[in-house]
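tool_call: predict_structure(chain=1)
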Amino acid sequence: MINEYFKWNKNVSVEVKTFNYEVTTSKKFQIKEGNTSKLLRYIEGLEYDGGCKLGEYLSKGITSEEVWLFSDGISNLSMETLFSFKQPLYTISSSSSVNQAYLSALANQNSGDYLNLSSRSQKALLQKIKQPTIRFLGIEVINGEVAEVYPSKVALVKKNFAIAGKLKSKEATLKINYGIGGKVMSSEQVTIQSSDKKYEMVEKLWAQKQIDELSELSKQNEEVITNLALKYGIVTDFTSFIVLDNLEDYVTHEIVPPASMRKEYYAKLKKKQDYKTKEVNDRKERIYASFQADIKWWENSKDMNEVIREEKKNKPIKVDQTNNSTLPQREYVAEKKIVYGKVKENNGQEVLPGVMVVLRGTTQGVATDFEGNFSIEVPLNGILVFTYIGYQSQELDVENIGSERVLIVMEEELEALEEVVVVGYSRQASAQIQEVDAVVEVADEEDVMEMELEEVDGMYEAKRSNPKKTVKTTLIPYSSGAKYLEELDSVGKSERVAKYYELKKEYKNAPSFYYDVASYFYSEGDQKIAFQVLSNLAEIDLENHEVLRNLGRKLQEFERYEEAEYIFKKLIDLRPFEPQNYRDLALLYVDKGEYQKAVDQYYSIIESEWDADIISRFGNIELIILHEMNNLITKYPKQIDTSKIDARFIHAMPLDVRIVIDWDMLDTDIDLWVIDPINEKCFYSHKDTRIGGKMSNDFTRGYGPEEFRLKHAIEGQYIIKVNYYGSSKQSLFGPVTLRTFLYTSYSNSKEERQELSLQLKKVGKSVYEVGSLDYKIAN
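tool_result:
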């Protein structure tokens, strides 16, 4: 088409501008005698990269007489908008996937035309440029009164062109103007009169004309289009053809029936709505009961620092212990105590990490940490069994010890091993064997320290202090270890963008490539190229919820809040039945400082009607939502109007420590573990710890969130781990992406937050150490 055009317009200046979400390059060419070789060579050599925004910025600084916009009309980083040029605009596309309505409207608004290169001959398309099409420019009311006339703006005059509106007087005379480039070329005058007859087809024509105009920006006008379509029985992108055989069909689809059926319709519709209201209220009552129990937990939480300090002053005592199951089995009593201790080798000098400490006859157990320490809650008459490969098993009768702190000494096994204990996820098994080639420990991993993480040089640290407390948090940086990152790192900084374009040819269809490379450039301080690279995810598949979720969250991390908001709203449109999507948008509003919007978004999750399957999958999310909502209400009371919130759901609950994880994949089970300074692990099957730690309910079917809370932190180190237990789903995006939020001084003026995203690659091991928190209280 370019060659054909310049055969006709042979001597002309041309400026080529490339764009994605901004104008990226600009170059001028002088066409002489129709020679386009330099122009075409330049266009063929262009590198196209990044997602797209179509907006006002494209019309700025243009001084030419005519503009050609080559685009598929899909703005995947923002909503489409109609913007104005001073020159005629021709929108041009050859894509099989194109937003034709938008490109047509944009061209029409700017006295141009939409040219579809795949549907018309070049000669016919060029004729549209050479000889502009006449247009309807509007009406003038000579006398009488009319309203809501469509088209309400400039429109192409095609075959069967019609104008529809509402006549408000008995008669009206209209002048209809036609022209080119905004200039009136001809007019005609018509007189219309009212009629007592009701013409349903005329009403439908008027509604269709209005829908046609609204559909130029269909997404922004979805609600109005849907209401018109339902009222007048018109099929649109948001409605479909529905066969309405009886009254129940009208009630089911909430479509107003003919007048003869309306009384019964409204009665049945009220009954249906009353039932929905009751379901929502019943669910709110269940949430309130859980919230009240949560408040009670918070109010009863005690500061255990003094108790723990006193216990640590007492050294562990050596107690009598027996070898190899000599104590008879017994029935355990209900009353329990916590036993603390240390395990050493038989020389009494070296500690033994990884020793299994199990309540005999049960699957309840822990493992000693790197310093040989353990703590376990057991019945007052419990029998503890200590096992470690290469050492004789030991038993301890808790009923006979006079102290809660004990020292256990393990003796080496001199003969060949006869038994190996294999510890698995939520179960324990033992097997008699003759030979041992290898021993595999499957992690229930009360304290496995080898994690599936790449080695890193530095750590992200945040220190905060006040006169009484010092907190140091550490999140372990993530590296995917991908080959393409090694290749990027192998070249100089000035060569990395070129290297990226080279690598893109090989990995262009891999979402994780853009995610990793964007993270790499961002960590290197190049935020501009990082955003450009990341925005390619919007080009890959804007209908894939996993891609959208990761794109939105990474945009939020990059502080590209405008684009992130668009993506999260797109995700809600795509999957309105998942409460996590509304939470993601609320978290974004928090980062933007739009606290009222965030609170409204949170509370909408409490107030909404959710499908029974969704409640079954994610019904535990409400408490976490209320914690995050109340956090904002507590910190910003003057900025937030709570008048529309049920006062029963408002309660301040400040915490010393709060840790939250969520992830991007459905049908995936990831468990949060927090190991406190007395070596007690808080996780899904041990939700309440001695020092007051509390774990939320387990999300086994995807997304999370899971939450750990501690009102009064004791001194020492808190280790944060996750157990990637399993997934029954293949992901286009690749490995599951986990987010970890670590809060200290939650819900008060000194609140600090750290965030880390990492991808979990389940290769043999499933336990990942995410970070740690060192908590110290001044004497």
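agent: Residues 134-194 form one domain. Proceeding to next step.
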